[in-house]
Amino acid sequence: MAQHKKNKKGVMYSTDPNYAYNYNNQSEEATRPPSDQLLYISRDRKNRRGKEATLVEGFIGTTDDLKTLAKTLKAACGVGGNAKDGYIILQGDHRNKLKDLLEAKGYRVKLKGG
């Protein structure tokens, strides 16, 4: 994978001719099977201008698998949303529907307050 200058955070210029920038090559944790995961579902209104959103947190796996799960959940609920930073955000309150969907897929699910 080619590294781009935009990926260099915190370094503007180096006069050292032998300097090699250390790209943050974090390896993602492999996706665990659904039965080994505990997902938390909650409703959120913070920083959303009063609009409700449903959060799914606790997913352990690769970003691609998280986005795939988010796409499945968004399609099942017929709403928009996003997957980033290890959690899924769906527009509206869909806690009970998501709980049923995720349990059908084999995930362990807990509803958090809110």
Plain-language structure description:
The protein has one domain: 2-Layer Sandwich (Translation Initiation Factor Eif1). The longest helix is centred in the middle third of the chain and has 15 residues. By secondary structure, it is of the alpha+beta class. The chain has a 5-stranded mixed beta sheet, with helices on one face. It is 22% helix and 22% strand.
Map the helices and strands.
Blueprint lengths: L37 E7 L8 E5 L5 H15 L3 E4 L2 E5 L3 H10 L3 E4 L3
Task: For the structure shown, list the relevant keywords.
5 strands; 114 residues; alpha+beta; 22% strand; Translation Initiation Factor Eif1; 5-stranded mixed β-sheet
Portion of residues within helices: 10-25%
Shape: elongated
Number of DSSP E strands:
5
What is the H/E string? EEHEEHE
Supply the number of structural domains: 1
Give the mean pLDDT: 84
What is the CA-atom radius of gyration, in angstroms? 18 Å
Tell me the CATH architecture.
Answer: 2-Layer Sandwich
CATH topology: Translation Initiation Factor Eif1
Structural class of the helices, strands and pairings?
A: alpha+beta
Strand numbers in spatial order across the main sheet: 3-4-2-1-5
Annotated CATH homologous superfamily: SUI1-like domain
* CATH class bucket: Alpha Beta
Largest sheet: 5 strands, mixed
